[in-house]
Amino acid sequence: MEQQRRTAALSKSYEVCFDETMIVPISQEKFLSNRSNKTKFIYMLVEKLKTIDITTKQARDDADVLIIETAIALSEHQKTAVIIGEDIDLLVILIGRTQSHQQEIFSSKSFDQYPRTKKHILFLHAFSGCDTTSALFKKGKKTVTKALEKIPNLDKLVEVFQQENCPVQTLFENGVRILLALYNAPKSEDNIDHFRYTQFIKLTKLNKPVQLSTLPPTSVAAHQHINRVYYQIQTWLGNDLEPQEWGWMLENGILEPIRTLLPPAPTELLNIIFCNCKNGCGSRCGCRKSGLLCSLACGQCNGQACLNAAQYPSNPDEENAYDPDILEGLEMNMTDNEDDDNELNVFERQ
Q1: What's the superkingdom here (predicted)?
Q2: What ranges make up the beta strands (E) of 26-178?
Q3: Which of its termini does the chain have fewer beta carbons within 10 Å around, N or C?
Q4: pTM surpassing 0.85?
Q5: φ, ψ dihedrals at 285, nearest 5°
Q6: How many whole angstroms separate alpha carbon 273 and alpha carbon 347?
């Protein structure tokens, strides 16, 4: 799933007709970004390994899970099974899946002083951010580890994430309580939206810009994060779930995370925000910084002649289609204007 997203994010590459003796004329990254190239290469590699009596398995979903499950199965019939890889997920899954006999497989002495973390390492890795889950700003693995070890009963809340078929409401309630604990909310606080608001008000009194990323997520965004964390943990445990029921959506054949179900701001506020950029609405554009597209209210571009406008039809004959040559010209001529930082205006429409 994540590999599909990464592949889609890479620049598109053409399909190469090749055989095992050929030197591919493009980089490995571009070559493998083409799905046909990758599929053919894997098939060729599997067949080659079979000729020298090396057993192969091809993963349908998460390759890391298959690697660990294969190693555990082999270790039951032979003295040593060696796992070679660069992905930290391999070590995390191995610890999570072999709690009862870790010393037989690898040295985990460094975890002895963190017994709760060791027990819930799958949760730690997924909740604090991994390949398929979001990372909380300045709430990384050290923060979660300290919370698990020091906050009483927090590990009890975490246990539900390893339960198969856990009720969604229980997951959400426990997940929100964990988030509140990570953000040092009072014990009496149980509403993450209310706590986010009170933290925002507190920060505004410091007479300096509020860094919104330091605030806890909204309840809707938190819900999606909790869904993806549960889905990932269950995947690592070998349980099959439907990703589109757990914080993912399918776009153009690729799974994308559902970040939130709410707009970036209330409609009333969105209708009174506009920019006055003079140079194509680049990185300094006030609308862009607010996570908004430019609109008709914007002073210079009117939400049309800029790089932050809504997507226009690709058919040049279609009414209101925007000439791509103009966009290209804007991009070439755009310069960072220091005055653009002050070109976000908020006012009440008459």
Answers
A1: Eukaryota
A2: none
A3: C
A4: no
A5: -60, 130
A6: 7
